[in-house]
Write a structure and sequence with these properties.
This protein is mainly alpha-helical. Helices cover 38% and strands 8% of the residues. The chain has a 3-stranded mixed β-sheet, with helices on one face. Strand 2 and strand 3 form a beta hairpin. It is elongated, with a radius of gyration of 21 Å. It binds zinc ion (ZN). Zinc ion (ZN) binds next to loops.
Length: 115
């Protein structure tokens, strides 16, 4: 569990989802956002952490695609088989973001084919 606790708050917080400040709990990401007793917001910090988490969910070349016409192939195999499809994939499939290395390989494969 990651606890987001307002710094220098007027009362102590417990590192628990059941803290007396009635924190907001994001069970999916294991983040507990505590409420400041002096009403300052920890929301901005929480957003930053969630965004970082989204970045870390990006998929790399060795990840296996689990749906669509490339199901069962790794990202690298799919790019080598059909880089144009993977351009579409990168632009449209929000649930399976590709990392920078994948996007570089797509570019490379398109260039190699003169596309
Ligand atoms: Zn608390």
């Amino acid at each position: 569990m990651i606890h987001i606790i307002p710094i220098c708050d007027i009362k102590e917080h417990e590192k628990s989802p059941y803290c007396h400040c009635k924190p907001r709990v994001d069970w999916d990401n294991s983040i507990v956002v505590h409420n400041a007793f002096d009403h300052r917001e920890a929301v901005e910090i929480a957003k930053e952490i969630l965004e970082e988490d989204t970045m870390s969910r990006e998929h790399g070349l060795n990840d296996i695609i689990n749906f669509g016409k490339m199901e069962g192939f790794t990202v690298e195999e799919a790019i080598q088989a059909d880089p144009e499809y993977m351009v579409w994939f990168n632009d449209n499939v929000e649930s399976f973001p590709l990392d920078a290395e994948c996007r570089r390989l797509i570019e490379h494969e398109l260039n190699r084919r003169g596309l």
